[in-house]
Amino acid sequence: MTNRPTENPDEDQPPIMGSWNRLYILVMVLHILFIAIFYFITRSLS
What we know:
Elements: H1 20-45
């Protein structure tokens, strides 16, 4: 027998967005958005 704790599905959920895939997509979209904003700021001020 293994002494593995019972898995609770509520503990595996991310705090926002409902699923880990949605949270990862949000992080990637924000990352791309910040890169684009900083790129345009750099181009306009150089």
